[in-house]
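Lecture notes, part 5. Sequence design as translation. It can be helpful to think of inverse folding as translation between two languages: the language of shapes and the language of residues. The source text, in structure tokens, appears below.
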């Protein structure tokens, strides 16, 4: 026994002598080491907006650890993931942290950003609604439009529960994300909590925004494709136009509604995680999508992507667009559509 005890003491002493030295990793401020364009290329947000967002999130340090991550680093880890869509291991290697730490930061900060959706994803009211109608009318002459509506696939990894509901017609797993966009590529509504198997019309029918239109809280038209039902506040194209007026109506609607496809393109090109595959559970993927939409709108408001002050909306003639009793909710969608065709597209 004494020989064994002596042997163990020798092992412990050898371990003490060969203790691995502590590694103090670089925690410098990347915003100070790179130019503005370099920061935007890597994080898809400009430095001034990153600092502004950091003040809104009010992130805290993990004080239980000796080498806790500063709030700025937590945010940059999250932005790096959204901008590249890379695995947590690659994001961690790029910023010199472990994969598990990167995953925790990505999930926690995504939830914080998604909680800002009420402040940055809002449907236009009052002057904003009037401005939206003017901007949409200047595109192709379609009257009284307050938004363009459409859906897109966001690819996710194979879920463990209800896997068949998420397989789309292209053979991969995805969420069916429905967005409504403003005339300046700003997203005014985001519904990302449905799998692909749910049809666009059902997502619209069960949404809070649809109920608000039915109750008369919002006025104006939403433009959708033929996957949506034609209602008194949702206008869709005619499948078989037979007159010149109907063809002009379809052309104006399609030229106006192309804005939603352009918005999808801008959003997915800016945040590659939406263009490739979200390696996350459906619940976390929903938070990631909402976080991307919040950052998209924040970037537009602060001029990171589009400077609306340099391209103001030109004034439109004083035309009375409220030609349909929208507040009653009793008018059939096809009747509203034919009334618009006769009034605005028959000349």
């Amino acid at each position: 026994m004494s020989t064994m005890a002596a042997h163990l003491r020798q092992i412990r002493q050898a371990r003490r002598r060969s203790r691995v030295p502590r590694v103090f990793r670089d925690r410098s401020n990347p915003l100070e080491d790179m130019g503005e364009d370099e920061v935007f290329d890597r994080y898809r947000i400009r430095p001034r907006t990153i600092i502004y967002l950091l003040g809104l999130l009010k992130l805290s340090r993990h004080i239980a650890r000796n080498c806790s991550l500063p709030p700025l680093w937590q945010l940059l880890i999250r932005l790096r993931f959204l901008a590249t869509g890379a695995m947590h291991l690659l994001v961690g290697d790029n910023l010199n942290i472990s994969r598990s730490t990167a995953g925790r930061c990505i999930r926690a900060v995504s939830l914080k950003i998604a909680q800002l959706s009420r402040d940055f994803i809002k449907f236009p009211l009052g002057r904003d609604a009037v401005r939206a109608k003017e901007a949409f009318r200047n595109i192709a002459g379609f009257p009284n439009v307050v938004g363009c509506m459409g859906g897109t696939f966001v690819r996710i990894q194979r879920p463990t529960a209800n896997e068949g509901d998420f397989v789309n017609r292209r053979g991969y797993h995805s969420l069916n994300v429905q967005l409504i966009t403003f005339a300046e590529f700003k997203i005014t509504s985001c519904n990302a909590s449905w799998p692909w198997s749910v049809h666009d019309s059902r997502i619209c029918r069960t949404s809070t925004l649809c109920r608000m239109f039915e109750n008369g809280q919002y006025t104006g038209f939403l433009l959708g494709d033929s996957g949506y039902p034609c209602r008194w506040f949702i206008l869709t194209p005619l499948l078989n136009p037979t007159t010149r007026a109907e063809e002009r109506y379809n052309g104006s609607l399609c030229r106006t509604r192309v804005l939603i496809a352009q918005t999808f393109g801008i959003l997915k090109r800016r945040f590659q995680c939406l263009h490739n595959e979200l390696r996350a559970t459906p619940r976390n993927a929903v938070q990631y999508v909402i976080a991307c939409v919040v950052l998209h709108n924040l970037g537009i408001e602060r001029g990171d992507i589009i400077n609306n002050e340099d391209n103001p909306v030109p004034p439109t003639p004083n035309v009375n667009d409220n030609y349909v009793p929208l507040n009653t909710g009793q008018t059939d969608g096809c009747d509203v559509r034919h009334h618009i065709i006769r009034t605005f597209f028959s000349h």
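The translated text above is only one of many valid answers, since several sequences can fold into similar shapes. The radius of gyration is 26 Å.
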